[in-house]
Write the structure tokens for this entry.
Amino acid sequence: MAQTVIDTANHIVAYAAKAARVQVIAAYPITPQTSIVERIAELVESGELNAEYIRVESEHSAMAACIGAAAAGVRTFTATSAHGLVLMHEALHWASGSRLPIVMPVVNRTLGPGWNIWADYTDSLSQRDTGWIQFYCADNQEVFDTTIQAYKLCEDERILLPVMVCLEAFILSHTYMPVKIPAQEKIDEFLPPYKPKWFLDVDNPFSLANIVTPEYYMEFRYMLQEAMENAKQLIPEIDKEYGKFSGFEHGGLVEKYKCEDADLILLTMGTMGTEAKIAVDNLRNEGLKVGVARVRVFRPFPKEEIRKLAENAQMLAVIDRGISFGMEGFLAEETKASLYDQKNQPLIAGFIAGLGGRDVTFKTIGKIAKKSSEWMRAGRVEKETVWVDLRE
Amino acid sequence: MVSIKELSKEEYLLKGHIACAGCGPAISLRLLFKALGNKVILVVPACCSSVIPGPYPFTSFAVPVQNMLFEATGATASGVVAALRQRDIKDVTVVGWAGDGGTFDIGIQALSGAAERETDFIYICYDNEAYGNTGVQRSGATPYGAWTTTTPTGKKERKKDIAFIMAAHRIPYIATACPSYPIDFIEKIRKAKEIKGTKFIHILAPCPTGWRYDTSKTVEMGRLAVRTGVWTLFEIEHGKFKLNPPSSRLIDRAKRKPVKEYLTLQGRFRKLTEVDIEKTQKWVDEDWERYRKLASNQ
């Protein structure tokens, strides 16, 4: 039977791992991910979750153990954050290159120095080119649902890529919200046991990840890119299929709110998407035709959806909780790249907000929208990238 | 006791591998498979053994292999072991097979973690005393005075005592071996297979390419290492230290050949002075004094 629990996103992640019946967990603690692995330890030791839990000595080893376990044919889970994620960097490439379906919630925390445990997307977005699929969640319900969906997606033979399920530190990780957890039978039906086509097997020996010469390397990478393209098709289908029994859909690749007739579209990710909805409602009351599009999947990047959004809008205001130093916000960069050579070229302004955990409320977003609409009316963006609420 | 005659004629290191002529690690691999058969999953980090089987779409290893990142053998094997337990597979041995760089240096953390977690696997370090795969650079296993491409005038520091570092982890079984003594080698691997927990086997694997000796002399080089006492065959089983033959007959210094006989046969030690050789002899004798005490305490 479905049940509603009120809990933090971190605990919800642990319940999702249990509901997905993960078989091997390898994890190392890091603030603010710790309450995920603590709850998982309780679930494993109480026998509620029948899994092996490897308490590794580093995040690099966590990913290495997941790679070994996934290659040996079981459903595998880890979770990390910030410095832990970037320590894994090398192994992230190894996981995707080996085409292993590993699911990893990432509690988005910025990187030091100075030490800062609060939210932004610097950690996971700096891993965007590792060949991992990346989801960004807006609330605890989406965290649960996406974790389950992630296994369905990554174990599909058309995909076979690892997945990050990203959630912002504290804003979600430590915040209590009601979450509806579907009945276990429904989840089991949606996500049957993992049956890999190939795995490390003494009766059918093969060598995984051995040397590959220039003669073959490119083909392996082409197949990885194809899998990413396949994911664009599959993610919305899986979201819909999951929605049928759970009652929740999360917008597939991009969740759109009041975008149909909007002149100005706020483009953002994660919880800023939720705050932006409030801002949109307020601004609509003031007569501004504004909508919000929340990019739920950053890799593969939904460029076709961005193009569709751009067809009717006059302006896109892109709000980034992260920056690619020396360029601009990650989302702004990808948005512009997606629209190159398109017939409709809306104005685009980039806004950097909320780095290192600074609050981005609906009020902040309201200000961004108002500034953007001024520029929209003037037909000119005054500043390509604006740092929001920056101390002078 | 194992005899050569009763060993399986099956080969799981297949023909066509691309190891150097006279490769000590390749002989060791062949012996490993002779000892364990093919109910083995190998985890191989970046090392000579990631090259030896040849490139995709070929391999000369007839067992499943997870090739892995340089520093990650211990952790990756932990994952494989956990997965086998979940799948209720009990008759497969997981073997981490790593070089000295991947064990003494970059991989020591993952190895230490796996040992501390009492991971049920055999970790084998085949030690050719340098980063061989990348063209002979110094590692934490390179002995004092040895030439490598990053110690062109000879290494100034001593080799780590990795077996005793592992002994400090209180794992149930540690052994040293050398492919020049194949029966001892095979017996130790078979013994390790029967013991639950983390087993560590340290193999001296002579390397003509890095050590600068004739490719026909690999077996002889291993024997000389043992007869001079530079390499010692021993086991530490549940904390109990035991010398194995022929090392067990060499406690008396007079029975050991002078280390000079071993050193002067290798081009890598060409620049050693008499003082350096005396120093090495003294360290070897000190090690043996320690072994003697440990052996007599048991």
